[in-house]
Structure formats: structure tokens, C-alpha cells
Please model this.
Amino acid sequence: MLFTAAEIAHRLQGEVFGDAQTPLKSFALADLAQPGDLTFAENEEFFTRAEQSAASAIIVTGTLTSASKVLIRVANARVAFAKALALFFPEPTRPPGIHPSAVVAPSAQVDPAAYIGPNCVIGERARIGNGVVLHAGDFVGDDCQLGAGTVLFPNVTLYPHTELGERVRIHSGTVIGADGFGYVLDTGAHRKVPQIGNVILGDDVEIGANVTIDRGALKSTVIGRGTKIDNLVQIGHNVQIGEHCLVISQAGIAGSSELGDYVIVAGQAGISGHLKIGSQVTVSAQSGVMHDIPSGEKWLGSPAQPDKQTKRQMLAIQRLPGLLRRVVKIEKKLGLANDPEN
Model:
């Protein structure tokens, strides 16, 4: 797709410095750029590499100038980079229609503008909205609702009563609405507690590949608007996640915990059940959260504590070998080295 620098600047709400009619045919990293490519630089180091590259134009922030390259100056180079990629590499569109191999229940409602791919199954009373795309092998259970513009990539499973907002994206292998892990010990055996709730995903939620989100026991498991969940994440039953949160790969959130808005749960972190995590909290990678966390705090470690406290403990541990050597020397001077009680 071909744009002029002026057209790109208009789309990015930026300003051109140099020849505004410079044609731009693609986007590339500076190290790989060819003539006609657009690249970006969010700091001076990246800018030096971009200016030395073959790219024809550079997206920049601030007051950087160039005598050899066309510059498109924007408020935030990384945000503009994301927008520019979408211009040059738009997502493929699917023509509306239902593939002959798909199985659609008679009572299901499928919008005429939706695309239903090969071997998809849509259950009774399911509602598929305008522009929804179901790739091959998707399963949509009874009474599910999919909002306009939602995309399910291949082999996604939605258990019955799952509700998806608009523009939700769910990647391959993800299972939404499986039974929560609920059991009660009864005369020496684990009796299953029926899980009769559902899962609700807000607008603009994106779920990575091979994620599992369990339905609630009696109510809904809820993922708030704009939240993004990475691959290989487990969300337990009755969990409530707020808006615009980030949950990174291999993290796990146990049942009935509640997260506020703009929470970040980093990779391999675990949050125990029935906890309340405030808004704008960051849980660092591999942390194990056992307690409620007030809004605005950053916690680290296992068990997790406020990050400054954990860092002080880490520094203290690093000093232990030296402290132990000093203690041994002091004991020798005091004649305590062979004391059986030490």
C-alpha cells in the first residue's frame, strides 16, 4: 500500500519536515529498511541508526532534525509506530457468509455480515453480531453472545452462556467458560460443586493463545473493557478484572479475586484466591501474592510484599556471606569458635 509522507502524517496527527510528497510503500525497522520504507525512532540512539539506514522517512518525537531524511514528528513515536503498522499491514478481511461445513443451530442468530469459517459449530440461541469472524474449528456454545467486530481465531471454544463485547479478539486454543475448580470434601471424596455461572468479556478485550478463563460458580467471571491477556494465562472462577489491565504470559489468578483498573500482572506471577487488588497496581514477574494490595502500589517477591521492602531484603541477603565471615572472625577472637551451642 502506497502513501505519501503527508498522508501518513495526517493519519498520525503529526507534522512533516521535508518533502511531504515522498512516497512510502512499507514500514520496517531501521536495520532492515529499504528506500521507500518508513521507520521510527523513539530516542537518539534509534534515531542515529534510522538516519544511517536506507529508509526514506522517520517517525520521531521531540526536536530531532535531519538533513537527509523526511521526518514525521508526532507526540508519541511508539504510539504512532503502532498506528502506522496498521496502515501498511491491515488485517485481512473475510467475506460475509457461512461455510458449507459449519454447523449452525436453527435457533441461532447470525448477522448477515458475519463470517463463519470451516467446521465451526454454533449452538442453540447463540447470537453472532455484525462483522464477527469465526475462523476454522471454532465452537460457540448455546446462548453465547458475540458483539460486533469480534474475531475468534482457529479452534477457540466458548462454553454456553459466554458473553463477548464488541471488537473482542481471542486467539487459537483458548477456552472460555470451562468449569471452575470447585470441590468440597464429602466423606473422604471430593464432591464437585456445579459451576452454573458464565464469563463476560467487555469491549476491546484481547485474549492470547491457550488461555483458560473459568466460568463463575454462581455468578459471572468478568474481564473489563480494554484488558489484554497474554498467552498461557489461567483465570479462575468468579474473578473480576477491571478495565485496561495487562496480564502477562503464564500468570494465574485464583478464584474470586478482584482486580481494579490498569493493573499489571507480570509473567509467571500468581494471585491467591479471594483477594482485592486495587487499581494501577503492578505485580512483578514470578511474584506470589497472598494479601490484598492497595491501589497504586508495586509488589514483588514470593510471598509478595511492597517492592521497596522486598528489595531491601534482597540487598540484605546479598550481604549475608560477608556478615557471616565477620561473625566467624569475631567468634575466633572471643574464643567462641568451638562453642557447641553456636
Notes: The chain has a mean pLDDT of 96. The radius of gyration is 27 Å. Helices lie at 5-12, 44-52, 77-88, 307-334. The domain at 156-303 is CATH 2.160.10.10 (UDP N-Acetylglucosamine Acyltransferase; domain 1).
